[in-house]
């Protein structure tokens, strides 16, 4: 049986286009590129962008802007010829092709919650995103939570949606070398056992309330456990950055790491943390939860949007709008050893069920079902 020929959009993992930083969609795209071959797919990566700047994928026949304009102006025009069984768009850049197009729509944040997104050309971007979503022959949602939003905000027919959860690489279950972990902590001035947050600094990540909760903890606990915030500065994060800087100037045990050298450093930071605190207001999935679970790290997470679906009770859930609830959970997760061990064990079990290999297997099954229609 010949392998299924699948094109995969890899624009988000091109170092020449993303500045060397992978966002959640980039992590997802990279994971599929790695694991789909073992699921029976011959994967060909493609990217939008000038050929001279691409190192991962082949250039697509037209730029995204040109292909979008053609699709809008002449929907019945000859579609891009790909020579594939199907094409998988992972990053909302969806254009018509001469093969079935599968699109992963991670969430509907810009339309469902415009207040958490940059207003720059928002109306035009939202309109284009809705039009693009409707071009897909089939849609993959990364959580059951996202399905209702995709139907309501994008007008996607629910019968054309399959849910395939995100995952974590098997390598995360093996602790990094102790010497490397120690070197990473020394390089950043960290001590083991800190509270960890991972994610871009932007309003929906709710880091301001996390910072407030941390600063409200007993001084003896703050002295013993740092708050380590790992993430690039995002839209409307200036005030948060100023508050972090003010806390540091006042001698608080807060560290902000806005750039890491790669995944190895990130794994080291998870491995040496005391707990992941993830009070996000909105997530289509939340990959850091699985990374923490696989690293045997107890987790405090929001009880909203997709997060309870991802954790399935393996995390200590909190109301993300309550600073006092976040702070109380932080106290519990470090002081109650029995609770801590229950969370670690449940989290590891949950992560074992949600690996990227399983994501790829289920994604390949979606491909096959489309081709059989």
TrEMBL record:
Q: Annotated Gene Ontology MF terms?
A: glycosyltransferase activity
Q: Name one GO biological process term.
A: lipopolysaccharide biosynthetic process
Q: What class of enzyme is it?
A: transferase
Q: What name does this protein carry?
A: Alpha-1,3-rhamnosyl/mannosyltransferase
Q: According to the lineage, what is the superkingdom?
A: Bacteria
Which E.C. number(s) belong to this protein? 2.4.1.-
Q: Which residues form the Glycosyltransferase subfamily 4-like N-terminal domain?
A: 23-171
InterPro entries the UniProt entry points to: Glyco_trans_1 (IPR001296), Glyco_trans_4-like_N (IPR028098)
Glycosyl transferase family domain residues are: 192-349
Instruction: Report keywords, A-Z.
Output: Glycosyltransferase, Transferase
Upper lineage is: Bacteria, Pseudomonadati, Pseudomonadota, Betaproteobacteria, Burkholderiales
PANTHER family for the chain? GLYCOSYLTRANSFERASE WBBK-RELATED
